[in-house]
Structures are given as C-alpha cells and as structure tokens.
Design goal:
It is a multi-pass membrane protein. The protein is mostly helical. It is built from 13 helices and three strands. It has a three-stranded antiparallel beta sheet with strand order 1-2-3, covered by helices on one side.
Length: 389
C-alpha cells in the first residue's frame, strides 16, 4: 500500500519542488489556468470557421484542426511555464539578458529569411512550424529593462542604455513591419522608465514624444494611415472591424450556444485576432465581460502582491510583464469592439497560436518566478528611486 509522507510538500520540505509549492502565488496560477481553459474552449468554437477559411481545393482541414493543435501547444507550454517559474531570479535574469541578445539577432534576420503572411514578414519558418521572434522577445525584453534600470550607474547611463535597447527593437520591428508590437514595446519601456523613478517632466516628455510618433506613423506608414482613416473617418476597408463587431453582438447577452454561430465564418481570422468576437456570438456578451474581468483580476493580483515587495528588480520585472500582458489583451478586445483600429494582435492565452502560447508561457513563468516569495520573510514597502534624478 502506498503511503504518503506527512512531510511531503510540507513547510519543512526544503526541496526545490517543496519551496516552489509554498512560495508560488497559487491564486495567480489558478487565474492563468482558468484563462487557458477558457482559451481552449474558445479555439474549439472558432476552429470550424478557421478550418473553413484555410481549406483549399486540394486540402480540406478537419473542423477541429486548430483545436487539436492548440491542445498540443498547451501540453508543451504548461511544463515550460512551471519550469521557468521554479528557477531562481538571478539565473532567470542572466538567461533573459542572453535571450535578449539572441532575440535582437533573430529580429534582424526576419527580413532576410522570414516568411510573409498577410503582407507582413514577421515569422521564421522552421519547417514543422513558424516562429515569431517578437513574441519571444517581449518577456525577456522586460527583464532586461528591469536589470538596466536597477544597475548602479548614473541616471544618464541607465536612461541611455534602456533607450538604445528599445530603439533597436523598434527599428527592427518596423522593418517587418509590426507597428502594433512596436507600440507595446515602447509603452512598456515608458512605464518602467516612470516606475523606476523618472521625474514627472521626463514622463510627460515621453508622452508627447509618443503622440508625435503616432502622428509620424500616420503620415509615413501606409498601413497605419489606412487603419486610422478607417477607424476615425470610416473611409477605406472596414470589413474586418465591422464584421468583428457584428459577430460579437450577434449572440446577444447569453450567446447562440456552442457551435451555433454562423457569422464567425465571415471573419478573416476567427481563431486568432477575432476570437473574442466568436466568444461573443456563441457564449454572449456576459462571457466577454467575464473574460475582461479575468484579465483585470490577473493584473490587479500582481500589482497588489508587489505592494510589499522589497526587490527593485522584482518590482520592475513583474510590473512590466503584467503590464505587457494586460495591454495586449486590452488592444485585442478594443479592436473587436471597434474602439481601436485593427492591429493584428492575438488575445493572450485565448487565441490560437504556437509561438504565442509558448512565448506567453515563458512570460507568465517569469511573472510567477518574480512574484514568488518566502511566506516567513517579513517585507516592508520599497519605492524604487534613481539616485541623482
């Protein structure tokens, strides 16, 4: 008969797994598990429409093609998230710095060897799958910024090094082009810049610079011009956003029921960019509202946990990671309800995608690692400030 030791995973257990069990934020882990479960249901609902769109005269995809592939990616991604969350912060920081360098090289190679989809060259084809380097760059970029902002250097050195990094990333992304991801990288950098103790006039200056950047994008970046014109003035091609909004509201408050949606077959990317609209049609506006609340709960949970964190690196890294996560979710939902122009951005842990699922698992593993804490340590509030600002 199998007997479990009373000390197994008890508070006296000092093994790596035992420490992880007591230090991990169980509530955050549960919220992420719920989100992944909802995402799998959503992909199952959207898969028939996606399979129909990508079937051809020579190949007909099974209705649940994307569902089974997503299940495979989830099975591969969850162990990655748990493994990353078990590693010590010091090791993760070093790995993220190395990964940031590798990511810059990969972004530079995309225009040279990358594959083009829907007019954008953002993926590297590995044969068995396509990898989007920018997705993997997002989480490690945050930790690299947090490391820079907590170095014992002058204000000018830290500001210059961080600006150089985000500038390099933005330049490489706009070569693809990927304006949406560029915005997320710059907003993340600006937020950490402010959180690290920058003076208010510098933060205001960044805000003004951001507005100027959007204006320049409107005049010199054709895709931005078309999408902003369509959003603000109703000119050009509004097919995607109009269909997304119509599909989302077609189910009313409680939806038409699983598999009963029909308008989803008219969406351009029902299983990725516009999966939030599919949820609205089949499960109702109530389900959409619940998902929005779930994202908000994840962001709030992390920020509340950081109130008594005393590590500047952990504060900046965890804040940046959860901000990036929440911002991507907000942009995707905003596009689906027509309060933002079309961006081509997935809904975290809900949209179909191998690169997205793996990269998000790395990011959330980092978030879980930087929010881990020994429950027996006394902590006091700590405000990160730059010396000499």
């Amino acid at each position: 008969m199998l007997k479990l030791s009373p000390q197994k995973y008890g508070r006296a257990d000092r093994s790596a797994l035992g420490r992880w069990f007591w230090e991990i934020d169980g509530v955050l882990l549960l919220l992420l598990a719920i989100l992944i479960g909802i995402g799998l249901i959503a992909v199952a609902a959207a898969s028939p429409a996606g399979a129909d769109r990508y079937s051809s005269s020579t190949q007909t995809l099974p209705e649940l093609y994307f569902f089974w592939r997503q299940l495979m990616w989830i099975a591969a991604s969850i162990p990655v998230m748990i493994l990353v969350s078990m590693l010590p912060r010091e090791l993760l920081t070093k790995l993220c710095l190395v990964a940031t360098g590798v990511g810059l090289i990969a972004l530079a190679l995309v225009p040279v060897i990358g594959s083009t989809i829907n007019g954008a060259q953002r993926w590297i084809d590995l044969g068995f799958t396509r990898v989007q380097p920018s997705e993997f760059m997002k989480p490690v970029f945050v930790v690299a910024l947090a490391w820079i902002f907590t170095r014992k250097m002058s204000f000018a050195a830290r500001a210059g090094a961080s600006a150089l990094l985000v500038g390099a990333v933005g330049f490489l992304l706009m070569r693809q082009p990927d304006f949406g991801s560029t915005v997320i990288f710059f907003v993340t950098w600006a937020a950490l810049f402010a959180l690290a103790g920058a003076r208010m006039k510098l933060v205001i200056g960044l805000g003004v610079a951001g507005l100027i950047g959007l204006v320049l994008a409107y005049f010199f970046y054709d895709v931005a011009t078309q999408r902003i014109d369509a959003f603000l003035f109703g000119t050009g091609d509004n097919f995607q956003t109009d269909n997304a909004m119509a599909t989302l509201t077609n189910g009313g408050m409680f939806g038409l029921g699983p598999g009963a949606g029909e308008m989803k077959f008219d969406l351009p990317e029902p299983h990725t960019d516009y999966i939030f609209s599919v949820i609205g049609e089949e499960f109702g506006l109530v389900a959409c509202f619940a998902i929005a609340i779930l994202y908000l709960a994840i962001v709030a949970r992390v920020l509340v946990k950081l109130l008594d964190e005393d590590s500047p690196l952990a504060i900046l890294a965890a804040s940046g990671l959860v901000l990036q996560f929440g911002l991507q979710a907000f942009i995707n939902m905003a596009v689906n309800v027509q309060i933002a122009p079309s961006k081509g951005m997935t809904l975290p842990f809900i949209s179909y995608g191998g690169s997205s699922m793996l990269a998000l698992s790395v990011g959330m593993g980092l978030l879980l690692a930087f929010s881990r804490r020994n429950p027996y340590l006394n902590r006091s509030p700590y405000v990160v400030r730059w010396s000499g600002t």
